[in-house]
Amino acid sequence: MTERLCGNISSCSPYMIWRNYSIGIMSLSIVPLLCSMASSNVYPFLTLAMSLALFAFVRGNRRSKSENCAFLPYIAARVLLLFTFVSVAAVLLFSYVDRKIMHLLPSLSMLLLSVTVLVVWGIMRYRSVNNTFCVDCILRNGVPYEREALGHIYFREIRYLLRRVGVGAFAIALVEWVYYLFFFDSRLELTLLDNAVFIYFPIVAAVVDCAILGFRYFVIDIFYRRGEGVRNYDGLAPVNGTKVVRVVVFSLDKVYYQKRKDGSIYDTPFEFVTDYSEIPSSGEAVTYMTGRLGALPVNAVRFCYGSSDPVNRRGIEHFFCFVDDDADVDKYEESTATAGRWFDKPALEREFYAGSFSKMASSEIHRIYTIMVTSKLYDVKGRRKIGDKGYVPSFTMEELRAVDVDFNDSHWMMLSKFNKDIPFRWLRVVWYKYVEGLG
Question: Any idea which UniProt keywords this protein has (predicted)?
Answer without folding.
Answer: Membrane, Transmembrane, Transmembrane helix
